[in-house]
Amino acid sequence: METIKLTIDNKKAEVPKGTTIHKAARQMGIEIPTLCYMELHDLNIENKPAGCRICMVEVEGRRNLAPSCATRCEEGMVIKTHTTRVLNARRTVMEFILSDHPKDCLICPKSGNCELQAMANKLGIREIPGQEIAAMSTYRKDTSPSIIRDLDKCILCRRCEMMCNDVQTVGALSAVNRGFMATVAPAFEQNLEYSSCTYCGQCVAVCPTGALTEVDHTPEVLRALADPSKTVIVQTAPAVRAALGEEFGMAPGTLVTGKMVSALRALGFDYVFDTDFAADLTIMEEGTELLGRLNRHLKGDTTAKLPILTSCCPGWVNFFEYYYPDLKDIPSTAKSPQQMFGAIAKTYFAGKIKINRKDLVVVSIMPCLAKKYECQRDEFSTENNRDVDFSISTRELAAFIKQANIDLNNLEEGEFDAPLGESTGAGVIFGTTGGVIEAAVRTAYELQTGKKLERLDFTELRGLEGVREATIDFDGLPVRIGIAHGLGNARKLLDDVRSGKSQFHAIEVMACPGGCIGGGGQPLHHGNSEIIKARAAAIYTEDRKKPLRKSHENPFIIKLYEEFLEKPNSEKAHHLLHTHYFERKKKILVKP
Amino acid sequence: MAKQKKQLLVCGGKSCSSHNSEVLYDNLCLELEANALENEVSVVRSGCFGLCHLGPVVMVMPEKVVYVKVNPDDTRDIIAEHLIKGRKVERLLYHDPVSGKIIPEEKDFAPLKKQMRIVLRNCGIIDPENIEEAIAHDAYEALGRVLTEMKPADVIRIIRDSGLRGRGGGGFPTGLKWEIAYNNKSDEKYVVCNADEGDPGAFMDRSVLEGDPHAVLEAMAICGYSIGAGKGLIYIRAEYPLAVARLKTAIRQARDYGLLGDDIMGTGFSFDIEIRYGAGAFVCGEETALIHSMEGLRGEPTVKPPFPAESGFRGKPTNVNNVETFACISPIILKGAKWFSSIGTEKSKGTKVFALAGKINNVGLIEVPMGITLREVIYEIGGGIRNGKKFKAAQTGGPSGGCLTEKHLDTPIDFDNLLAAGSMMGSGGMIVMDEDDCMVSVARFFLDFTVEESCGKCSPCRIGNKRLHELLDHITKGKGVPADLDRLMNMSMVIKDTSLCGLGQSSPNPVLSTLNNFREEYEAHVTVKKCPAGQCRDLMEYFIISENCVGCTACARVCPVNAITGERKETHTINPSICIKCGACIEKCKFDAVIIR
User: Which partner from A371, A431, B363, B408 sits 20 to 30 angstroms from B6, CA to CA?
Assistant: First the structure.
């Protein structure tokens, strides 16, 4: 490998050719402050527009300061990262940025978690010269079902734009306007709701300030909890337990399943259930559907659509409804676990506890912002009563727990309630990329072959590679599996399928990089991909600890079919647990 | 063309066109027909003559008699008197404002005397819509020579030896640029012509494209051959419809003549050119932003390196040169590097086109050898300051340049001297200011433009320039304090030091250069709250000199806000807190008693 020798702050170093000054300095233990720059190393995601001009350094022989994030090291470079010229420039630029940023930190949803605030603190900014005569750029606030855009707080780091366009290929957000009024918005400065936005929330996940935040539904949840006429139940998605602890100072990857259950109970939920249960149910329905199509295909039935695409991810569903409406009959018709849970809760469970569905409030805790939109879809309501009433994110739950003065760290480990709280390891791994298809394989293999699966850990399906392919031997029948996480990777995979370049029997897609563990509603990773890896590891740990690891062995699932649904893909199951898709391509409306 | 004895060249440049030269052209044609002269005399819509202050201009060829400020109604006289009777129409000839003499021929025009035309060689001489006229004036000869007699490396060497530097503003050696693009191996390369002329008041590129489009097409093909590119793109702002139309005509004609397209002149070399339109954003003149705009992306710069020569249009090696740079290429090939490098100063060779504007007698387009002094430009070519006022400063380099002052009058103008004087060459705008111009307001005025034209990508340019503008505005309103000058200085330095592209790196120049050269003016604004040039309205005070006032009450009666009081036949006074500075009292006073101080 070709290397380059250079000097940073009087220390000599040798780095591979192509290394940026920022990375070279980091290797030497010199942390040059950055603001717009962000990297998720293992996911191949990098944002370096060199726009904020905070990470400027002095390079000997150059007329101007250089942005360390985007300047490649060159042989013999002599770099200084903290001369008075650099420090003055950094401070002055920061004063510029702050002079056009609202000072309402007290009531900002990002306060305490804001990278701009942290940087202002780090640079010791105590006043902003000229603020009294400084005009502020102001924009119309925009609230969609999932995401709030408050662009007065945008510092034009362009991370959201990079996620939306380069990583997700959704193309909802891009820079608009020029100069002082430049900002990031959908085309024609439309509301997000009228754009191609999938509500994946990756823009929110990377926003350094309060410009992009989730719609907070905790006030509605609090109101429901306070209403004595309502029975309020909660379901928690698998990825939540692997990340919630971070909000309470625990190391990334700390599993807090039991403490989370106790906290939810302490918050006043009448029943604490698990979305993992519904994940097991999803496997029963989706797995059966897969085997149905596969066997029809093997018998030569050309109407059997393959590959089957998973449909648990609402961001992904929005994406293919918008961009691949011609393929809308190939995804599984199975609802997502969140919605399966809601449908079962408001029928089977409401019947069990003998209350009207209108008096039962179903709340979901999700690592996801698209789930907020999903539960508001018309097809998931019965007589204007939603199957899932409110969906709140991991971050909102953390804030809720803190508001209620509950000390998560010191809570006893609680247990989920029966019957909708029991799950297998297969349900747990839904939380990470590759998990849904692995869970499906565990069940489909045994149902298809009638044999017991010896090896449950399909490591060939795991990992953080953006697009993965594997062939699983179903006792002599090779089943081709494709996996993509991140919508841009999904697009690649889907384009290959559409063009006939790739042939799969089943494809799992998760909209967010890393799967749900990297969801738009999770605690902020601030550009540290180690956090995402630690969450994935936690998910697989939880799976291994479970006594049952195959969905079809979940006794409560078996009981549910016996008592209520008869069998997978039965007429009743179809009615309650399956859905259909719409072409979502919207007309561009000229009114905001 | 050869059969006709005479030609009437009607300036088709933008300035003359906007003064009805189109109607003038039509009238001339009709009048010739009426006199059955259409077979003997042709009317040609030419490119800009550079005599914009005298437009519309008509030149009679071959005698080169110039008629100025010609109205469409004057056509009858020109035909009847000049063409038929052979007598010059005296009232339409140029009257030298200094000597009062009548100057009939172009060669004797003071504004043209010190000029040297390389870039504008054919502007105003040929019909830009007729390729044969261009060919008759040596167009495509250089290309032919390059394709048949030279290797790419030879061409690059000639350009390098000529000392030609980029005319778009940066002044990067053109030969070196070509060499880098040549050395970057790729299956596909591009030649881009930057015709996104954005400096307010600058129109040299437009004039070349309108007056001699083949000069650019030919040079692009030569560049393509030299660096190994088969495709050229001209990025031009859509606000230049005439230039676009003429380029399209020129490209079509060049293709028809086998001078563009496949197998040019049968040499096996293929090169074709397409036009790309810009929406007029100033920042798209920056080469990376220009390339992104052509790619269909937001017109925003990106960090260099990688330079376009390494990774440009669609990630391929791309050579971007400005219109004026390209227009220098063919003469260099034909006349040699030595000839070109004999013109100009040590490090700046050849000529430079300036758009002369402001408080000067002769405004317009001039082409002068590098190294000419500001004094020669202003007093000899420009005819001195208008209304006999005193010269104060000349802004070069457009809104991101700086100002030259009296002490720079005898400095030879070239890339390096302008930089040393705190200004820059830029694309060649030159705005002359006189004693009535307030330098704080001038700086604010230029900032107006850069604030408007910043793309917003980097924070120092997006926010810093806005803050700079606000502070200047504050000062011109008399609200500044002495410490503000240090803040101006610091903000300016940091914006220059930290901005992403040339726009932000140069936008504070007007502030810095006025602050350096006219600090006392700034100080007057922030300490005694006065504007020495008397231009900042908020700092003016209307005052009645008691010695001159006779107490006629005229001022008091005309004052719309009753700010003036005083008994009849006694001295009047103005209450400054009521006065709205409308100036009515000054106009009314017959005794020069009201002054602004």
Answer: B363
Picking from A102-111, A153-162, A397-406, B378-387, which range would have the lowest pLDDT averaged per residue?
B378-387
| Prediction ipTM score | 0.93
pLDDT recorded at residue A346: 97
User: Which of B283, B451, B498 has its CB closest to that of A53?
Assistant: B498
Query: Which secondary structure element, helix H or strand E, spans residue A231, and what is its range?
Result: strand A231-236
Return the exposure string of A155-167: e unless at least 16 CB atoms fall within 10 Å of the residue's CB, then b.
bbbbbbbbbbbeb
> Going from the N-terminus, what domains does chain B have, and what CATH number goes with each?
6-109 (3.40.30.10), 131-340 (3.40.50.11540), 351-434 (3.10.20.600), 439-526 (1.20.1440.230), 541-596 (3.30.70.20)
pLDDT tens column, B95-134: 877 777 888 887 777 777 788 999 999 988 888 999 999 9
For A68, the enclosing helix (H) or strand (E) is: none
Task: Kindly state the tokens that stand for A243.
Answer: 């990340």
The domain A219-577 is classified under which CATH number: 3.30.565.10, 3.90.1150.10, 3.40.50.1780, 3.40.50.300? 3.40.50.1780
Residue A437 Cα, gap to closest chain B Cα (Å) = 38
pTM of the full structure? 0.92
C-alpha of A82 from chain center: 37
- Provide the token pair at B458: 């980097």
CB-based contact B458 A174, cutoff 8 Å: no
- With an 8 Å Cβ cutoff, is A67 touching chain B? yes
Which residue's entry shows tokens 């803040």? B487
| Per-residue tokens: A84 | 């008075």
| B453/A contact by beta carbon, under 8 A | yes
Q: What is the dihedral of CA B296, B299, B303, B304, to 10 degrees?
A: 80
Q: What is the mean pLDDT of residues B277-303?
A: 94
Is B464 touching A (CB cutoff 8 A)? yes
Q: Which residues, in sequence order, are bridge partners of residue A362?
A: A233
- Higher pLDDT among residues B191 and B580, named by residue: B191
A446 vs A256: CA distance, rounded Å: 31
Please give the pLDDT value at position A498: 87
Angle between helices A314-323 and A487-498 in degrees, nearest 10:
50
**Residue A104 pLDDT more than 90?**
yes
User: Start-end ranges of CATH 3.40.50.1780 in chain A?
Assistant: 219-577
User: pLDDT digit string (tens) for B563-580?
Assistant: 999 999 999 999 999 999
